[in-house]
C-alpha cells in the first residue's frame, strides 16, 4: 500500500516514514502544500496523511482542491491539539479522519489500516484464503498455522491483492502501489514477486489472467 505523507517537520516526517515503511508501506514525503497537491493529483495513493500547517499552501486548501478535482483518496489530517476549528474545517472539506499532535505512532498506524480497509470495502483486518491467513495488523502470514517469512515487497504485493480481492489487478497497477514516486518501477518484477509468493504460500493463492494481471479470489 502506498501513502503520501505531507509534513513539513523533517524529523517527524522521517519518524513516521520509518514506522510505516517497517510495516510494509511505501511512503512518499511532501514538505509543502504545493508539492503535496501535485503528488496527490498525479499519483495513485491508497491513503494521504496531511498536516494542516504546511508552508506555501495550507492543508485545508490542498484538501479542498483535491476534492474539487474529484480525487477521492482517503485523507487523514494531522492537527494541533487546540485546533478544534481546523478539525471541523478539515472534516467539512472532505477529510476522512484526523489525529491531533502529539500522537502515538501505533494509533497513526491503526487509523491508516482502518482507512485502507474502509476504502477497500473490508471490515475484518484478517484476510484468509484456504490455508493462508494474512493479519494486516502485524503483517503476519501463516500457512496451515505456520508463520511464513516474507520480504517487504512480497508483503506489499500480497496486501494489495488481498485488499482488492476478487478484482483483477494489472502489473502496472501493482507497480504503482508498491514503489515510491522516485523509485525504479519495473512491472516485470511483479511476476517475480508473485512467483515467490506462490512458492511460499501455494500455487493456487494468486491466479493469473494471461495478459491482464492477477487476482486473489475469496468470494464463495
From TrEMBL:
* Cellular component terms per the entry's GO annotation: cytosol; protein-DNA complex
Output the InterPro entries linked to this UniProt entry.
CheY-like_superfamily, OmpR/PhoB-type_DNA-bd, Sig_transdc_resp-reg_receiver, WalR-like, WH-like_DNA-bd_sf
Residue(s) carrying 4-aspartylphosphate? 51
DNA-binding region, residue intervals:
124-218
Tell me where the transmembrane regions lie.
none
Coiled-coil parts of chain: none
> Domain Response regulatory, which positions?
2-116
Q: Does the keyword Cytoplasm apply?
A: no
Q: Where is the OmpR/PhoB-type domain?
A: 124-218
Q: Which GO terms describe its molecular function?
A: phosphorelay response regulator activity; transcription cis-regulatory region binding
Top-rank taxon, per record: Bacteria
Quote the protein name from its UniProt record.
Answer: Response regulator transcription factor
Amino acid at each position: 500500500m502506498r501513502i503520501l505523507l505531507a509534513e513539513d517537520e523533517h524529523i517527524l516526517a522521517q519518524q513516521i516514514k520509518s514506522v510505516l515503511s517497517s510495516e510494509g508501506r511505501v511512503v512518499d514525503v511532501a514538505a509543502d502544500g504545493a508539492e503535496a497537491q501535485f503528488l496527490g493529483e498525479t499519483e495513485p495513493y491508497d491513503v494521504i496523511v496531511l498536516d494542516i500547517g504546511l508552508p506555501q499552501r495550507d492543508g485545508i486548501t490542498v484538501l479542498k482542491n483535491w476534492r474539487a478535482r474529484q480525487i477521492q483518496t482517503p485523507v487523514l489530517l494531522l492537527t494541533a491539539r487546540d485546533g478544534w476549528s481546523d478539525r471541523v474545517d478539515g472534516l467539512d472539506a472532505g477529510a476522512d479522519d484526523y489525529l491531533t499532535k502529539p500522537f502515538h505512532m501505533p494509533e497513526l498506524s491503526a487509523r491508516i489500516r482502518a482507512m485502507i480497509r474502509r476504502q477497500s470495502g473490508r471490515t475484518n483486518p484478517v484476510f484468509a484464503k484456504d490455508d493462508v491467513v494474512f493479519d494486516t495488523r502485524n503483517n503476519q502470514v501463516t500457512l496451515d498455522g505456520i508463520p511464513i517469512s516474507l520480504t517487504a515487497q512480497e508483503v506489499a504485493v500480497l496486501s494489495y491483492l488481498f485488499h482488492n480481492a476478487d478484482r483483477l489487478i494489472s502489473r502496472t497497477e501493482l507497480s504503482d502501489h508498491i514503489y515510491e514516486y522516485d523509485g525504479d518501477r519495473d512491472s516485470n518484477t511483479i511476476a517475480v514477486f508473485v512467483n515467490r509468493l506462490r512458492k511460499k504460500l501455494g500455487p493456487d493463492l494468486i491466479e493469473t489472467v494471461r495478459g491482464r494481471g492477477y487476482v486473489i479470489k475469496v468470494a464463495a
